[in-house]
Amino acid sequence: MVVSHPDRKNVVITALTFPLLVIAFLCTSVIATPLSMPSRETDEEFTSFLRPNFFNLVASPLDFEDEFENEAGTNLFSTIDHLQIVYNRQGDIFIPDGPNTFDEVASIDVYRIFVDDWSALTWWGDPLEPETVYPLQTGFWNWLGFPFSNPISVEDAFADIVNQVLVIMNDQGEMYIPGEINTLGELSPGRGCMIVVHDDMEFTYPPPPEIATLPTTSPNHIPPSELSSLATGLPYPILVSFEKGFQFNEPLVLSVYDGLKLVGRAQIEDPDEVTPVIAWQGNDEFELTGFTPGNKIEIRLTTTSGEKISASMSPENPCFSDFPLTRISMKPSGNHKPNIPLDIRIGRAYPNPFNSTMQVLVELPESRAISIQIYNLLGHQIYKTNYQLNKGRHAVQVDFRDLLQPSAGMYLLKVESDGHVSTQKILYLP
Q1: Terminal alpha carbon distance of the chain
Q2: Amino acid 43: pLDDT
Q3: Which residue among 48, 158, 198, 426 sits deepest, i.e. has the most Cβ atoms within 10 Å of its Cβ?
Q4: 362 and 389 in contact (C-beta within 8 Å)?
């Protein structure tokens, strides 16, 4: 089996081949109960939840007990239900009933863990010392744990070395670039992150703002329904900017492709702001669709209603290989013109199929009331809401999480405004 990931420019882990897994990124809150743990003296324990079909980046906020330290990982990793593989930055791997190249596991290590159903990893031991030292090296993605009991802001955590930080990112593609981008926000117990620095150094977190009791589980910092269905846990950051003269009067959808494969997507709200876009690396062994490192990056721009926007990009042929990220500048082609609504227009629902929320583009030449209704195929109305919108373009959100346990399948979406009616089929895939 080959597990490739973007933590170095070229990192390949070779192991036994085992059956392919079907991607089923579940949007549910059901968590599998971890296997029973050996008897222990301490009461300090912490559970990191593991998403299915996703390379989870996790780290212990506790100092392992003696039975884990200096062991080859069997005691620790065998407690994970639905486990397929564990590996670390050094390339050690653990596969149930397969190879185990870990000589030992250590409390400050960070692990990528792939499971094929919701599961959890429970750690136990004493709290890590706040003075824990983490060695960081230049030239690749360092994996970094988090020793504190409460989340802290990423700015506070790295304030002392901010001039050394190039980029910090977690497994969900949230990132921090000092002075430019911060979608990461904070660091959380039980979760690892990746960091690129200018120079080799030893890093120690500053003292936490307050001392608190360690929570028993990792926070649900991004609900499954809000995490992109494209996500694989192997993110690659792309920063997109727009040259002067690129104007649009509605949000645009920027899609990233590797050939015919859609590997990333983001909504552009303001052409004057740099927009972070995450492309997701694939993995053939686990049937995770995504880009292949080294392939060409293709960018496509559309309106939220699906209309194509003509643009060129610089550099002309960027690839999924630049380290640690790719910067792309978009400029309008000669025929680019901002779209201005002249009459009522109701666009297609997007995305469709969808797994939690969708948007409908409504264009209004003046203020209007609109009604959004959803019917099942038996003709029963199951959802209705009304809006009073100002003139202009609006991306109106429809949230299926507002409904009571909707089942997967086909529905009818009806949008009305001042005599204009649009009815379209939508497919709900939770």
Answers
A1: 30
A2: 59
A3: 48
A4: yes
For the stretch 323-364, pLDDT in tens is 999 999 998 875 555 555 567 778 888 788 888 788 888 888
Q: What is the pLDDT of residue 17?
A: 34
Q: Which two tokens stand for residue 408?
A: 């997967």
Task: Render pLDDT for 365-408 as a digit per residue (tens, 0 to 9).
Answer: 778 888 988 898 888 888 888 888 877 777 788 887 777 667 88
CATH class of 345-428: mainly beta
Encode pLDDT of 190-243 as tens digits.
899 999 999 999 999 988 765 444 444 443 333 333 346 789 999 999 999 998
Question: To which residue do tokens 């590997």 refer?
Answer: 263
Query: How far apart, in whole angstroms, are the C-alpha atoms of residue 428 and residue 409?
Result: 5
228-332 and 345-428 agree in CATH topology: yes
Question: Which of 237-274 are b and which e, b meaning 16 or more Cβ less than 10 Å from the residue's Cβ?
Answer: bbbbbbeeebebebbbbbebbbeebbbbbbebeebeee
Pick the CATH number of 228-332 from 2.60.40, 2.40.30, 1.10.357, 2.40.50: 2.60.40
Q: Where are the chain's structural domains?
A: 2-127, 134-204, 228-332, 345-428
pTM: 0.68
Rounded distance, CA 396 to CA 398, Å? Answer: 7
**Partners of 269 in the β-ladder:** none
